[in-house]
Each structure stands twice: as C-alpha cells, then as structure tokens.
Design goal:
Helix content: 25-40%
CATH superfamily of the largest domain: P-loop containing nucleotide triphosphate hydrolases
CATH topology of the largest domain: Rossmann fold
Bound molecules: adenosine-5'-triphosphate, magnesium ion
Radius of gyration: 25 Å
Number of helices: 15
CATH class of the largest domain: Alpha Beta
Length: 449
C-alpha cells in the first residue's frame, strides 16, 4: 500500500458469505430461470413480479437472494458502496488500485476493494448500456446517470492511461432541506430569512442569484434547498447537464442536455435548452451549472425581466465575475448587474470535526461605476467563531422590494423578523423537502402577501 494511504481512514466493505454446495446449486437454477425470463421479455427488470417471486421463494436462503441481486442488478465490487447513504462519492481511479470513497462525516477514505480493469470496464459498459450510450476509443468519456439518480463520470484509456475510472456522485434519497442546512450550520436562520424575502421578492420583485464555490462545496444542494422559497404559483424550468435537482414543486419542467450521438449529431446544449425555455413562459429559470455560452443567454433573459438562479464554479466573488465576463461565457459587464446576489460556499476540512460546508460570503451586486462592478458585502463568515455574520448597512435589493411593494423599510424588517421566527419555530421538526415546501406555502397562505 502507498505511504499516504496509511493515513486515510479505512472503509471496510461487507463481504458476502460463501454459499454452501446446496445453496450454490439453487442459486444456479434460479439464475438460469431469470435469464430465461429476461430472454423472453427484454424489458423485464428486478421489480417485475415474476422475478420477485423467484427471489422471494421461501426456500431460498437470504445469501442466495443477496448474491442474485448483486449479480443481476449490481455493479460488481462497488455495489455495496452504492447502497451506503453515508457516502457522497465513490471513486475508482484505475486498474488494480484501491477504490476510494468520500464519507459524509469522515471525509476521504480508502476501501478494501481492489478492482481489476476488466471489472471496471464491465461496470462502465453496464452503465452505458442502461442509457443506450457508448464508450470507446473515439468517445472515451461518459457522463451518465444511474437509475437511482446518481451522477456518473467514466473514462477509459487512452485518456486515463492507468486504467478506466469512475467517479460517482451518490444521489441522496432524501434531499437536504433548508432546515438541514441550518442545523449543520451551512447557513443560519438570519440568512435563510433574508434569502426567503429576496427569492420570493414579496411576489413582486424576485432576486436573481448565483451560488458559487469550489468542487463539491455543496452548490447544487444549496440551490435545491433555496428553491423551497419559490412560491407555488410560479412555473419553474430547470436546465441541467445531468439531472441532480430534486425540487418539491409540482409546476415544474425539468430539462437535461444531450451529447452528440456517434455520428456527431443530435446534440442538445444548455444554451439550446435555455433558449427553448424562454418560449415556455417560465417564471423562474434554474440552471444547474453555468459554465459556457449559455451564460449570455441566461443574462439576456435576466435583463429582460425573467427570474433565475444557478450555480457556478469559482473560488471567490471576484473570480465568479471574472469567469462570467471572460471566455467562454463572455457576459458583458453591464449585464452582470442583473444578478442581485452572489453566494459563496466552501467545503472546509476541520480536524476533529471532519468536513464542513459553509456559506462564507454573500455579496450584492449594486451597480457599475467607471466600468467596475460595485459590490456590497451582506454576509461574511467568521471562521474563529464558526459563524456567519450580517455585515451590511443596507441592501439595495431588499429596499427595492419594499419600494415596489409600497411598504416602508421598517415594515420589511418586520417581515424579515416574522419569517425568521417562523423558520425557528419549525426548525425542530424533522421535515422532508415536500413537508418544508408545505410549511413555506402555509406561510404564504396565512400571511397573504
Ligand atoms: N450543506 C451540506 N452539508 C452536508 N453535506 C452536503 C452539504 N451540501 C452538499 N452536501 C453533500 O456534498 C456532496 C456534494 O454536494 P453538491 O453536489 O451539492 O456539490 P457541488 O458544489 O454542486 O458539486 P460539483 O462541483 O460537483 O457540482 C453531496 O453528496 C451532498 O449531499
Ligand atoms: Mg453541482
């Protein structure tokens, strides 16, 4: 084992017990029956009644069922990892190397799985076949989604000369809610109430925002939780490379890009989806990750009165703006103004605590002066106290909302306090994302604003 690996916590996988001779015989028989069934019916899956009956046959030991399940539905050696909800990421880095995982609390870990090239290839083939795509020398990269929603990136040699790789961002069955994020201190109720007013905009002036941060800092997750503040009367369109968002809203159109086929045709880019969404009368456009030409389309839409949110990969507010105004996004300086807030998020490793995720800054884009964008810092993270502090003297976007609504500054502050109290009151309940949505909608109903 490599020297560095000795420092990593170990993730020990459960090994399947060896089957007895009798069990093995039964196992082979059932497997043959299942193969026969699937030959007759190509669309057969493991949830089919006939297969369930075979698997559940009381004579079968649980070991047989487990092994069959892995054989038919499984992803070989990494299958057990896929079923562990404590893992954020599964990482296969090449042939005859250990598989690594990123644990929700323990961070990076090394597993006891060593995987051969043929085994990785088999898993990648399986994933590719499921979504009717190909991975080969001509197209050695595959971006895909597993049936459970997990996001996959796979590569094969020659682009990864040390063997095929797999990076799987596990899909969280129960998505985090705004309350979960407050409890884990990613943000506090102060910022949550602030963003609630901003995102809803008191039904009159919704703010546009970008969540920015490094790889795996939790941008998409924060974006997902913040959508709870979008009122139920709105029509939402989401645009993503790989479906990751799990919005609780019912009036929602989800769209996903498509890579070109083998002949290089049929590509559907983010830009195309975004342009199309503008013909679908959206109230709110949500772009999973802004990274290319679609930025200009998005900003044009925001400049003409649409509301939107998205994530962007950058390490600071300044870098976010630099990325937006340069190649390949090329958004004109003057258009950046249509974004009200940039929220910076970071993944931080703290000894004793493990990995934490924090919103570290919220900046308001207030305008342009001599070609320079003017920023107003609203929130700043204080690492020594591990607290997010409100640092603004005033906030233009919130003042604008009050003005449009015809209420005073004092009244909007009162509304902010009321929402903060409401969030605090509902905090203790362990609610899923749909229930959180209901709580927020109840607030709208009973406060009629
Ligand atoms: N606030 C949080 N607290 C705890 N875990 C979180 C938090 N936010 C995200 N996670 C977990 O971290 C992982 C990465 O989250 P997410 O996909 O939101 O990050 P990202 O910044 O969008 O990543 P990428 O750069 O790949 O797009 C996921 O497994 C997610 O469940
Ligand atoms: Mg993301």
């Amino acid at each position: 084992m490599n020297f560095e690996n000795e420092f990593l916590p170990k993730y020990v996988t459960k090994t399947l017990p060896q089957l007895t001779e009798k069990e093995n015989e039964d196992y082979q028989k059932i497997k043959e029956q299942i193969i026969q069934l699937s030959l007759n019916d190509q669309n057969l899956d493991l949830n089919d009644k006939k297969i369930k009956e075979l698997l559940n046959n009381s004579n079968n030991s649980p070991h047989i069922q487990e092994k069959l399940f892995l054989d038919i539905n499984g992803y070989g050696k990494i299958n057990n990892l896929l079923h562990d909800d404590n893992l954020e990421e599964i990482m296969v880095i090449g042939s005859n190397k250990p598989v690594y995982v990123y644990h929700r609390t323990k961070g990076m870990m090394i597993t006891d799985i060593i995987i051969k090239e043929s085994e990785i290839k088999q898993i990648i083939e399986k994933i590719a076949t499921q979504i009717q795509r190909k991975i080969d020398k001509q197209t050695p990269i595959l971006d895909a989604r597993l049936p459970d929603g997990s996001r996959v990136n796979a590569t094969i040699p020659p682009i990864t000369p040390d063997g095929s790789t797999l990076t799987i961002r596990k899909f969280k069955k129960e998505p985090y809610t705004i309350f979960d994020l407050i409890k884990s201190k990613t943000l506090n109720t102060h910022l949550a109430s602030f963003l609630w007013i901003a995102i809803e905009g008191l039904h009159i002036l919704p703010s546009n925002l970008i969540i920015s941060g490094g790889t795996s800092s939790g941008k998409t997750t924060t974006l997902n939780t913040l959508t709870s503040f979008i009122p139920p009367s709105e029509r939402i369109i989401t645009i993503e490379d790989t479906l990751e968002l799990q919005l609780p809203h019912s009036h929602l159109i989800r769209t996903e890009t498509r890579p070109p086929n083998i002949e290089g045709k049929g590509e559907v880019t983010m830009d195309l989806l975004l342009k199309n969404s503008l013909r679908q009368r959206p109230d709110r456009i949500i772009v999973g990750e802004v990274r290319s030409k679609e930025a200009i389309t998005l900003f044009s839409a925001l400049n003409t009165g649409h509301s939107g949110m998205g994530t962007l990969h950058a390490n600071s507010t300044k870098e976010t703006i630099t990325r937006l105004i340069n190649e390949p996004m090329n958004v004109p300086n003057i258009m950046i103004n249509s974004i009200d807030f940039i929220i910076m998020q970071k993944r931080i490793y703290v000894p004793n605590k493990g990995t934490i995720r924090r919103i570290t800054e919220v900046d308001e884009i207030v305008g342009m002066e001599m070609d320079n964008l003017q920023l107003n810092k609203i929130y700043q993270y204080n690492p020594s106290k591990d607290e997010l502090e409100y640092t603004a003297i005033s906030c233009n976007a919130i003042d604008q909302i009050a003005m449009m609504k015809g209420i005073s500054h004092k009244q909007i502050i009162k509304e902010f306090e009321r929402r903060k109290k409401y969030l605090e009151e509902n905090m203790q309940n362990d609610l899923n994302i749909t229930e959180v949505q209901r709580i927020i909608n109840n607030y709208y109903k009973s406060n009629d604003n």
